[in-house]
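Quick one: structure for this chain?
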Amino acid sequence: MPIDSKVQEYKKILDLFPNAQEKYQYLIEQAKDNTDFPEALRNDNFKVSGCQSQVWLIPEKKEDKVYFMSDSDALIAKGLVTLIASIYSDETPEDILSSEIDLMEEFELGVILSPARRNGAFNMLKMIKDYASKLTNS
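Got it. Here's what it folds into:
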């Protein structure tokens, strides 16, 4: 499924929740469902800098697609990185790099996330694009 289609699917889900608390709860549920992260990968090589909590993003290239594993030590950040990783997983590096979607605006997360968490989300996306860029140049 293309990136923009995944974004629209998540947007439909998030639009079902009338208030910020319910959107937070949705992110927490996403975090609780993301349990298969090996402890050995919680290292600085995969750590997202600039996040309020510890967040890890691990890329894996299979054939011409990129897949991301993610984790965090905070539920909201983990839910957010899980959501972002699922949007950009199973895509080509070129599709990731060409995507100009503003997730904060699309999901209206700017109103429910603190400035520090918005900055963290921006850094998560930047790291995904950096990985995609390295993979296209390798």
